[in-house]
């Protein structure tokens, strides 16, 4: 189905706000995830949160933050469409649910890799150029995974911007399982609240369940404020220690993203990812060069074919030139023949004209085959008396008299 320049491929999500659909932009063939939000029943506060999410996503263009493309507003149907990067492997929450069902676990290397990428994404938020961005809803469902299982942090609908990272916020939002003790106590909080949520997220990647739970909200609040949890011994001391640091009751004792980036394992993981990124760039460049070589080979083959066609054409032209030369020679010969015939006809016409002029003076003579003398005048000798041929003198006298008579009376 096509609408507004997009081909709708499938529905990939649904919530109270509306739908998320996988779409393809017809203009450039890019596959996107499109949020379709009905704002007709939204409060002013919810509308402001929506505007805030769009503005933050538009500015936060980083590798491990879901990319924002564009938005469209359908005022007639009171819908807003937000087009974002499409992540082929869905979200981390769906993956964890599947792993719980299948009783499978992440290996520690995969945990460190995803955790490092989340730290990098959160670091970009906490060091936003316009002020620190508190995500305030860090949970598995908001961690998207691309085709290579790389992390893309999403859903900034509950985010807020602080002028400085350690400034305090007072609005109490988020998912209960991942809320920090200061939020539970309805105290002021800052970016360290996101660090607590990060610890809960890391714990869940290890154990496939949140670190704090309860039969009801009161018990859950009590467990969060106590900071007590159990982590199996299947993981390294480094992983235990970092979870312990992230889940400190006192926010001042929790590390910042700057501290986390300096952790030896995370530093190593960042270096490995940079190497992998360079490797991907190298592979992409290699593929691009290979494709260019194929294109060049194809063009060379086309040029060779063109050369062959050109050679055939040249041979055809040479053959045509030869044929034209032969025809020109034939034409030249015919022209010479025609000129010869024309001259002969002119001579004949001259003979006939002279004969006509002479015919009245010798009407008693019969016309026979003429001969030419030096003046090109036609003289009929068949009826000249034979006695004149006996001596040259008589013959000469006869012709002189005849020509004189003709000249005196041309008609």
Q: What does this molecule look like?
A:
The protein folds into 3 domains: 1-85, Phosphorylase Kinase, domain 1; 89-262, Transferase(Phosphotransferase), domain 1 (Orthogonal Bundle), CATH 1.10.510; 366-411, no CATH class. 50% of the residues lie in helices and 14% in strands. It has helices spanning 44-59, 92-102, 108-126, 181-184, 191-207, 217-226, 237-246, 257-261, 264-358, 392-408, and strands at 2-3, 6-15, 18-25, 31-38, 68-74, 79-85, 132-134, 143-145, 151-153, 160-162, 371-372, 378-379. The longest helix has 95 residues, at 264-358.
Provide a quick synopsis of the model.
50% of the residues lie in helices and 14% in strands.
SSE arrangement:
Layout: E1 2-3, E2 6-15, E3 18-25, E4 31-38, H1 44-59, E5 68-74, E6 79-85, H2 92-102, H3 108-126, E7 132-134, E8 143-145, E9 151-153, E10 160-162, H4 181-184, H5 191-207, H6 217-226, H7 237-246, H8 257-261, H9 264-358, E11 371-372, E12 378-379, H10 392-408
Helix pairs in contact: 3-5, 3-9, 5-7
Identify the notable features of this structure and list them briefly.
411 residues, 50% helix, Phosphorylase Kinase, domain 1, 10 helices, two-stranded antiparallel sheet, alpha+beta, Transferase(Phosphotransferase), domain 1, 3 domains, rod-shaped
